[in-house]
Specification:
The structure holds 2 protein chains of 2 kinds. Chain A is α/β, with parallel strands linked by helices. Chain A contains 9 helices and 6 strands, in the order E-H-E-H-H-E-H-H-E-H-E-H-H-E-H. The relative contact order of chain A is 0.16. Chain B is mainly α. Chain B has one domain (4-90). The longest helix of chain B is centred in the first third of the chain and has 25 residues, at 20-44. The chains are: A alpha/beta, B mainly alpha. Chains A and B meet through helix 1, helix 3, helix 4, helix 6 and strand 6 of A and helix 1, helix 2, helix 5, helix 6 and strand 1 of B.
């Protein structure tokens, strides 16, 4: 099993999910940049604390090399035609590329930039639906329903179809 | 609107190389997804709840319905991302992935 670096939006949603602990069936550990932690409020930090205490999650400090690379990505994504990347998700991408981690994000920008930029084509970008699919192979429809109840997130019909679910 | 060639040139200036075919496919896909997502958010939102909130939270929730950008909405509201997400759930604004 491997490590994934998590963006704020993903964590905020996933930590609400009743079966959130099952993510460790997919990843051995979750890296959390301090930049991401800084965006979370009291609730998110409280939920994250047990993961940090048990060393299943660990913090990544601000490192100049990653910050410079993140800024390069953010500036490029300001191009009018591309989805805009925010600094924390850009930082996650920079860390993932250097360390060989997957990126966990519920934002579209990192996923599309990784498809568009050849330099990032080797970085695996996963959102909540991708993780649910990895955990609940045979029972995905029920898991999607539970996730929607717990988080208020919905998945587009197009994406659900790619996982064999007709909504 | 920039062309694919201009985006490729911009990428070069930043030291990146782009996959032009992936760019065209991604832009088309994004446009379709965002259209569907905006409709779902606007239809599901509890506008009565949103309009009752004080500014800047009200402005942030309106922006969230329009863009789906939780991070930007949290910045506008001036609260942490997970607190804004609590308000999003109360305002029945689904985020569409």
């Amino acid at each position: 099993m491997s490590t994934a670096v998590a963006d704020t939006c993903f964590l905020v949603h996933w930590l609400r999910f009743r079966d959130r602990e099952r993510i460790f069936e997919v990843f051995e550990s979750i890296a959390v940049p301090v930049m991401v932690l800084d965006e979370m409020g009291a609730r998110g930090r409280v939920m994250l604390a047990p993961w940090l205490a048990s060393r299943r999650a660990f913090l990544i400090p601000r490192i100049n090399d990653y910050e410079v690379e993140a800024l390069r990505l953010v500036e490029f994504s300001r191009s009018q035609r591309l989805p805009t990347l925010d600094p924390p998700e850009a930082y996650c991408l920079a860390v993932a590329k250097r360390r060989g981690y997957a990126v966990l994000t519920d934002n579209k920008a990192p996923k599309y930039l990784a498809q568009i930029l050849k330099d990032y084509s080797g970085v695996k970008i996963l959102d909540s639906l991708d993780i649910l699919a990895l955990i609940y192979c045979d029972d995905l429809a029920e898991a999607v329903k539970a996730y929607k109840e717990d988080t208020g997130l919905v998945f587009s019909k197009t994406r659900l179809k790619t996982y064999g679910i007709d909504s | 609107m920039e062309s694919t060639a201009e985006t490729a040139e911009l990428a070069k200036q930043f030291g990146f190389t782009i996959n032009k075919r992936a760019l065209a496919k991604a832009l088309k896909e994004l446009e379709e997804l965002e259209h569907e997502a905006r409709e779902i958010r606007a239809k599901s939102a509890d506008w009565e709840y949103i309009e009752k909130q004080p500014d800047p939270l009200k402005a942030a929730l309106r922006l969230l319905v329009e863009t789906g950008d939780l991070r930007l909405a949290a910045h506008i509201a001036g609260i942490p991302l997970d607190e804004l997400d609590e308000h999003r759930i109360k305002a029945k604004i689904p985020l569409v992935l």
